[in-house]
Every structure is written in C-alpha cells, then in structure tokens.
Write a structure and sequence with these properties.
The chain has about 120 residues and is an alpha+beta fold. The radius of gyration is 15 Å and the shape is globular. The mean pLDDT is about 85. The protein contains five helices and two strands, in the order αβαβααα.
C-alpha cells in the first residue's frame, strides 16, 4: 500500500489497513475484514477501534500474541524465513519486532464484538 515496504511490521500493516479503509469508505458502505493468522489478529484489533468495520472473519488468528511470537530471537528468525520480508534492512531488530507485535491487541475492546454462528 503506497509507501509500505511489504516487510512484516505490525505498525506498518496497521497503517496500510487503515489507509485501505479510508479509500473504500463511502456512503455508509458496510465494511468487513477477514484475515488468516496474524492478519486475523490485526483485523480484530482494527475493528475494535474503527466503527466503520461492521464484521470480522478470522481463521487461525492468535488471540494471545505474547504466546504466538514466543522469544524475540526465535520470532525474528521465523519472520525471516516466512517470506514476509521485502527488504532485510526494513525488518526491526528482534526485541523491537516483538514489541511492535505486542502493541496490537486483538482482544482490546472485545466487548464490542458480537459472535454470530452460522
């Protein structure tokens, strides 16, 4: 999205998603988000703070990111081999990367969510 490097960054991916929301928001459009894995956690975190999002579908989304990203060095390595690093210079250092992820709280304001079973 725009100036995004594409390299894994919870902060940058959140900005990218907010920019997408800004671009598709028009005339009371019903906006829903869907995401797999960390994308699902990110969708929940954005939806909890943005009233324009009316629905969220997640698939294998971690609710507790501290468990999901384990130790900083192991997580950093996992990100490197996962294919989500466009430019190695753009990837945060291990501790900073872990802090960046933990700043996303998919359960924040979870009282706003209403579960709908099919």
């Amino acid at each position: 999205m725009g100036g995004s490097t594409g390299t894994f960054s919870a902060t940058q991916w959140s900005k990218d998603l907010r920019e997408i929301l800004n671009r598709v928001d028009e005339n009371d459009r019903r906006i829903s988000l869907a995401g797999f894995g960390f994308g699902g956690a990110l969708a929940l975190a954005i939806a909890a703070k943005d009233e324009r999002v009316k629905g969220v579908a997640t698939f294998a989304a971690p609710a507790h990111l501290d468990h999901w990203c384990s130790g900083a060095d192991d997580f950093h390595h996992a990100v490197q081999v996962a294919g989500v690093v466009g430019d190695e210079k753009e990837l945060l250092a291990p501790q900073a990367l872990r802090r960046d992820v933990l700043a996303i709280d998919p359960l924040d304001r979870s009282h706003r969510y209403r579960r709908v079973d099919s």
